[in-house]
Amino acid sequence: xxxxxxxxxxxxxxxxxxxxxQHKEEGFLSLGPHGFHRLDYTLWGxxxxxxxxxxxxxxxxxxxxxDFLAADLAENDCRVACPDxxxxxxxxxxxxxxxxxxxxxxxxxxxxxxxxxxxxxxxxGTSLGGLIGLSLAAQTNSPIRSLVINDIGPFVPxxxxxxxxxxVGHNEAFATYNSLKTYLMNVHSxxxxxxxxxxxxLCHHSGRxxxxxxxxxxxxxxxxxxxxxxxxxxxxxxxxxEQVTCPVLxxxxxxxxxxxxxxxxxxxxxxxxxxxxxxxxTGHAPSLMTDEQIEAIRTWFDAVSV
Length: 306
What we know:
By secondary structure, the protein is an alpha/beta fold. It has a domain at 24-156 and 236-303: Rossmann fold. The chain is 31% helix and 23% strand. The chain is built from ten helices and 14 strands. It has helices spanning 67-74, 102-116, 128-137, 158-165, 177-187, 196-206, 224-230, 238-241, 261-269, 291-303, and strands at 13-14, 17-18, 23-32, 35-44, 51-56, 78-83, 121-126, 144-150, 155-156, 207-209, 215-217, 235-236, 248-253, 274-279. The strands form four sheets. The protein has an eight-stranded mixed beta sheet, sandwiched between helices. The termini are far apart. The relative contact order is 0.15.
């Protein structure tokens, strides 16, 4: 099962102004344990750009979370691909819930890199997207040239995972768009200060409207099954972190319980050369929609040689 009510490619607007940067919707087939599934993504910027960036979202999110960041990077000579992981957004839902797993996501993203036709990419990953990037960057001959890891680390306490497990998999319809928006603003209140335009952007792409005018969340509720099983234990990927050799920018919400402060500081002492930026009044995870957050990423990319 997958979403088939994909909207037309509308111009992206920011602060009420249309952004004049090329972007289009594309997709490809990727092979998983139980056959092929389609992955959709939004591609920003021009082919032949100096830098190719892949932005990968969190557990229940989708690639359109990165529209604000991608538009900015595309205006600065980057080509930016923002996939919907399987079961999210416009990508296929998987028939076996157990296939919503790190190895499958890694395989999908490897296929995406090959499709983009480049030898190396720069990676921006929020939460789950950061774990995928970390896992790929730890491999021998990794194509990940630099890594921005947003509010996730090689150690995640089970208590933080259990809080996420409380809302993931919500499968009830919302009577109106406003009720959907109220729900999402509550669940994602830790994303930090967002204006109404940013919340509407996030909510519009987080839901799909049914024929009767009600709304549902734009992801497969079955992603909750393997996540809840994993949430019983801490995530411990320190051995992978210590194999990463590319430069890393760690972003952290100051109030985050998913990336505790002591874990973030251990990341600076162990493993790759890394920098840490923290954002106030923010928990898990920084939205990467604000000017401050976007500038931090752009400035760091500019400082990392290509």
